[in-house]
Design a protein that fits this description.
Helices cover about 45% and strands about 10% of the residues. It is built from 13 helices and eight strands.
Length: about 325
């Protein structure tokens, strides 16, 4: 049964969400269609460009992404505090980057003299836009509608491009976040279309490695790594970049069909910090897409009332 979006996404429960959109029937987001003998590889660039452009305007950060042949994954972080700090003009500027403004809002931006009623109306509109800048539903709508329109124009057809509304999972703690990010970044390796993370085209892990090689502090338009801060809500991902890259590389080696066998005894240090042993981690990693909530049993119980739900469900991560 379809769940109301309010029972799936709540900033009070967690700011982190794993979202997936899939194409309808045999539509190709990108990749090569063997039946039609046609390449859609260029569409990977469409969605990557749009995704990162939206991240620059919305108060929503991209933690991880992977663009596949008929679907894409993205892990998002809602930055509600950033939205609150924006001035009215900054809110308008960000929203109008992707929308046509009304004549009233254009007059507001130009600094024209407005009546008291018009000023009040502008303020109401701007506050509604401010809220939308933290809405994953609006973020995904502007992403998917744009890609669907471009694809339909190219295919000279009309109708649905996406099979349904996007799927979302609440990532309730660090363990869930790490598992979802690694799962997303390793999609091309699991699909056997890439050999290593650094050769996985149109993924966040490739972008992060490329930036690292350029000695940049973080990849452009991606949520940075903040290390292992003591604060409960760090300004960035709660891991060190090198620890995460080691985790992704190690996990990819275990999940390759041609690399089965004894697990490397030198497991990444990040697993110890998160309280996983290697077998537990690989088991959780393999099940990430199950359920709409991912976290320890305690995290899930705490999140249920915030999401307006009563039943204990979702993917439960064991506590060591």
């Amino acid at each position: 049964m379809t769940k109301a979006r309010s029972s799936l996404i709540s900033i009070d429960a967690t700011p982190y969400y794993h979202c997936v959109s899939r194409c309808v029937r045999r539509s190709f987001l990108c990749g090569y269609d063997e039946l039609a003998q046609q390449s859609y590889e260029h569409r990977r660039g469409w969605i990557e460009e749009r995704l990162l452009a939206l991240a620059g305007a919305f108060c929503i950060d991209v933690c991880a992404y992977a663009i596949m042949s008929n679907h894409y994954h993205v892990v998002l972080h809602i930055d509600a505090n950033k939205a609150k700090r924006l001035t009215q003009y900054e809110v308008v500027e960000r929203w109008l980057a992707f929308h046509q403004g009304s004549s009233l809002m254009k007059r507001f931006v130009q600094g024209d003299e407005l009546s008291e009623v018009e000023v009040e109306r502008c303020s109401d509109i701007i506050e509604a836009w401010r809220e939308r800048l933290t809405s994953i539903s609006w973020f995904m709508r502007l992403l998917n509608q744009h890609i669907a329109s471009q694809a339909n124009r190219e295919d000279k057809c009309t109708g649905h491009f996406w099979e349904s509304r996007f799927k979302s999972q609440a990532l309730l703690d660090e363990k869930a976040l790490a598992a979802a990010m690694a799962y997303v970044d390793l999609n091309p390796i699991r699909a056997a279309i890439a050999e290593t993370p650094e050769t996985s085209e149109h993924t966040s892990v490739k972008a992060r490695i490329a930036s690292l090689r350029k000695e940049q502090s973080t990849a452009p338009h991606l949520f940075p790594f903040a290390g292992n801060p003591r604060e409960p809500m760090p300004e960035g991902l709660p891991f060190r970049l090198m620890d995460y890259l080691e985790l992704v590389d190690w996990t990819g080696r275990q999940s390759r069909e041609d690399k089965r066998g004894k697990i490397d005894t030198r497991t990444p240090e990040i697993l110890n910090r998160l309280g996983f042993d290697s077998d537990e981690w690989l088991d959780i990693y393999a099940q990430v897409e199950k359920g709409t909530l991912v976290g320890t049993e305690t995290s899930i119980k705490d999140a249920l009332p915030l999401l307006g739900r009563k039943r204990l469900c979702g993917l439960r991560i064991p506590v060591s």
